[in-house]
Amino acid sequence: MTTEPIRFDTKIAVLLREDLETWQRLNVTAFLVSGLGATVPEVIGEPYEDADGVPYLPMFRQPVLVFEGTKETLATAHARVLSRALPRAVFTSDLFTTGNDRDNRSAVRAVPTAELDLVGLAVYGPRNAVDKALKGARMHP
Known about the structure:
This protein is an alpha+beta fold. Helix content is about 35%, strand content about 25%.
């Protein structure tokens, strides 16, 4: 059994707007990463099982790094993510007022890309591409 730390050549990152309430940060993060897990199968590891043989759902195979930044930092990161065509998920401020997936999608669809009021962004891709896209953001405390 090897004890070498595993280094991933990819990164899963979430960027949150710094002015969110704690409950909003948790909610936005959960919603955003669900999009990556649903569409990028290589991010999901194997199912879990405890010593008694009780099965558990699989989770991401690598850490999810959470960052924060200003509204401007989010807009800049979003533009970089789009220019690099990285898999991404967005959460806009409008989604705090909707109550279901259909209305969420309609709320995002109603706003042009450059005018999205982003409060969160999830991204997956090669480590250096994600790092460049999130340049200027800081690790969430």
